[in-house]
Amino acid sequence: MDKTEKKNILVHTCCAPCCTYVFQYLTDNNFNPHGFFYNPNIHPVDEYQTRLEELISFAEIKKYPLILKEDPVDTWFEQVRGLENCQEGGKRCEICYNIRLEETAKYASKSDFDIFTTVLTVSPHKNTEMINNLGTKLTEKYNIEFLEADFKKNNGFKKSIELSRKYNMYRQSYCGCIYSIH
Ligand code: SF4
Fold first, then answer.
1. Are the beta carbons of 96 and 127 closer than 8 angstroms?
2. Does the beta carbon of 105 sit less than 6 angstroms from any atom of ligand 1?
């Protein structure tokens, strides 16, 4: 690839506020980001729809390509069965991160992206080390590079909040699953 050419990166995206700063950062750092919304962990359905619609509006405004992938929510519940009472950032979240990262890696690989990543590390509530380890483990299986990142660094989280306010975005008050609501 020509060094001046931007790398096509498939970015797992959970919501519009987390994308604001991350997509800007990637664009400024020689990437061409495409969003990949795959989040069977977001409940209830109204909340899922609200987050998705907000993301679609943002992608339209900023002209970011956005890919949607939906699966029956039952599969997600089956995979985290028995872990309902885990602390946030623990085993249930590890499985949840992996479900979403694996689908992103799979799609990126079969669709000829150069690399994949996730916006999740922009949040101070997420386990960055765990996310980066999971992403790195998928590189061999799907023969695709993973961009290890900690997007909250350099005030990334603060900047994402400022940008969300600028765009008057809906910002959720919990991570996603019904176990994280309280
Ligand atoms: S708290 Fe968030 S990351 Fe953890 S299982 Fe629930 S939705 Fe997934």
1. no
2. no
**Residue 100: how many CB atoms within 10 A of its CB?**
26
Give the residue, out of 75, 76, 83, 88, with the most ligand 1 atoms within 8 A of its beta carbon, to mutate for a pocket test: 88
Q: What is the DSSP letter of 48?
A: H
- Nearest ligand 1 atom, CA 179: 6
**For the segment 108-143, what is each residue's pLDDT rounded down to a tens digit?**
999 989 999 999 999 999 999 999 999 999 999 999
pLDDT of residue 2: 58
Smallest CA separation from ligand 1 atom 3, residue: 93
Domain boundaries, the chain: 7-180
13, 11, 15: which is closest to 173 by C-alpha? 15
Backbone angles phi, psi at 132, to 5 degrees: -65, -35
Give residue-wise pLDDT tens across range 69-100.
Answer: 999 899 999 999 999 999 999 999 999 999 99
Local confidence band at 182 (pLDDT 50, 70, 90 cut-offs):
confident
Cα separation, 10 vs 63, in Å, equals: 15
Q: Check pocket membership of 179 for ligand 1, CB cut-off 6 A.
A: yes
Q: Check if 131 has its Cβ closer than 6 Å to any atom of ligand 1.
A: no
Range 7-180 classified under CATH 3.30.470.30: no
